[in-house]
Amino acid sequence: MRRHRQSARREPTIALINVVFLMLVFFMVASTLAQPLDPDLKLVRTSELDGRAPPDTLVLHADGQLAYRGEPVASAQDFYAALPDDEGEVVRIVPDEAAPAATLVNLARALRQEGLRGC
């Protein structure tokens, strides 16, 4: 009696190689579709920043509350009324990361109506 010899099944590696190659081509094409940045452009480096707000800024919290020099402010009009004359007409606004953009735009609009401009 002869022994039946078991043949080793080959793995379908050709299909895997084809898929990997197609992914490589896809990522090469996708990366060339984006416009490159201007080569003369130097991006801002923020690694040396303290990560805290300067003391003379109007802080907009995530819930829409305002604060100036650590004290709560009710509205843009109250901020303008309490602003010393020597502060000038430029105000710095530091919004919280989670603050809604609409709130920030409305605040800037209200400050502009009072005669201040953002910096």
From TrEMBL:
What is the membrane topology listed in the Swiss-Prot or TrEMBL record? Single-pass membrane protein; Single-pass type II membrane protein
Task: Cite the InterPro entries for this sequence.
Answer: ExbD
Keywords, in A-Z order? Cell membrane, Membrane, Protein transport, Transmembrane, Transmembrane helix, Transport
Localization of this protein: Cell membrane
- Which coarse location class describes where this protein primarily resides? membrane
Q: Belongs to which family?
A: Belongs to the ExbD/TolR family.
Please give the name of this protein.
Answer: Biopolymer transporter ExbD
What is the species listed in this Swiss-Prot or TrEMBL entry? Roseovarius rhodophyticola
